[in-house]
Amino acid sequence: MKRSLLLAAALLLGAVLANALLADNGYVAISFRGILVEMSVPTLVLCLVLALLVLEGLARLARWPRLAREARATERRERARRDLDRGLLEVSAGRWGEAELTLTRSARDADEPAVHYLSAAHAAQLQGANARRDAWLELAREAAADAPAPVLVTSAEMNLKQGDSEAALEALQSLERLGELNPRALLLLARVYRLRGDFDRLRQLEPRLRGTRGVPTAAVEEIMDALYADMLRVATDKGGLKALDAVWEEATRAARRQPGIVVAYARGLARFEQNARAAEALRELLDRQWSEAAALLYGELPGDDPLERLKTAEGWLRSRREDPALLVACARLCLRAELYGKARSYLELSHALRPRTETAQLLAGLLEQLGERDRALRLLQDAVTQVTGKPVAITPLRQRLFGAAPRR
């Protein structure tokens, strides 16, 4: 419109100047069905300009309803964008009820309504309103029917946070049926299988995890290590020695070198009184890779050869003189071998390096057996203070003299 007005103004100005400056303004005659119209050239130009303006006005008038609708739609989308920004800030500020209202009041006008509904579902979950959360999630599914992956993954995450693995599994299986399991969804599915103790399905999922671009190799290794550790614990609690050995043999070579898996296997062996095998598995691990949990378990294992195992542990101590866990392990082996003075030295050094409640209990028990009850009591009091964060405060007792006159 602006361009048309400028053109009309230019033509009008030209016609006026031509009429004023030209001696001969020209002559135009138009005859149509017996009607003769005569005018000068500038007058014709003025008529054409007026016709152009009228046509432009009529065109704009015809387009006005559509332009008005587009303007209103643009304003609604802009309001929805502002509501999304404001709602996310309200969620961050902890005003979850206000955020839920802000995020949903203009969601239908947004370019991506699902984003509004998902954010509202998050705000509802933070309020513990699971029914409203599910309602917003359902609206998000309807709004993103062509691309359900973000909605289903978010639904699975929210249900997992609530401890509802069944609902999370249902959402992820729906995504799997659609053939849209993305890397995030695969990792969530692995987590759900582990929480539910579905070890077979988790092992079947391993090739997909390893073959999907975007799933970190370290994450897959961590999942599989946790899987075998869980299987070893289940075999220990609900199976027997054969079941435990079967899981160990089934684990990959790389998994059998992981400290957490070796410790779980050694604990299972100790449970079935296979202490020599457990000690050997821990020794092989500690010779190759250091693990405090393995060192502590090595010292806890019962057996008939404490001196031999103490010799092995003190061999490690040559290169790890200030390792608190190894010092405790050596002290336990010394106690089993009745080397009390040596055990005391190891425990005192370990407790000085890293005060721990367990170390304090061991040292206090040994001191009491050696007749140092006062020091043992102080040690236990210090341990309680360390755990609770405040010293034991007892009002000093005053000896009451019976028969004394009451105070006035």
Q: Can you list the strand order of the major beta sheet?
A: 1-2
The coarse silhouette is elongated
Helix amount: over 70%
Which class best fits the helix and strand makeup? mainly alpha
Distance between the termini: 105 Å
Radius of gyration in whole Å, from Cα?
A: 42 Å
Task: Please outline the helices and strands.
Layout: H1 2-21, E1 28-32, E2 35-39, H2 41-92, H3 96-104, H4 113-126, H5 130-143, H6 149-161, H7 165-177, H8 183-195, H9 199-211, H10 217-238, H11 241-250, H12 259-271, H13 275-288, H14 292-300, H15 306-317, H16 324-336, H17 340-353, H18 357-369, H19 373-388
Antiparallel strand pairs: 1-2
Give a quick summary of the entry:
This protein is mainly α and 408 residues long. It has helices spanning 2-21, 41-92, 96-104, 113-126, 130-143, 149-161, 165-177, 183-195, 199-211, 217-238, 241-250, 259-271, 275-288, 292-300, 306-317, 324-336, 340-353, 357-369, 373-388; strands spanning 28-32, 35-39.
Characterize the structure shown.
This protein is an all-alpha fold and 408 residues long. Among the domains are: 216-303; 319-386, Serine Threonine Protein Phosphatase 5, Tetratricopeptide repeat (Alpha Horseshoe). It has helices spanning 2-21, 41-92, 96-104, 113-126, 130-143, 149-161, 165-177, 183-195, 199-211, 217-238, 241-250, 259-271, 275-288, 292-300, 306-317, 324-336, 340-353, 357-369, 373-388; strands at residues 28-32, 35-39. Strand 1 (28-32) and strand 2 (35-39) form a beta hairpin. The chain starts with a helix and ends in a 20-residue tail after the last helix. The model has no long low-confidence stretch (mean pLDDT 84).
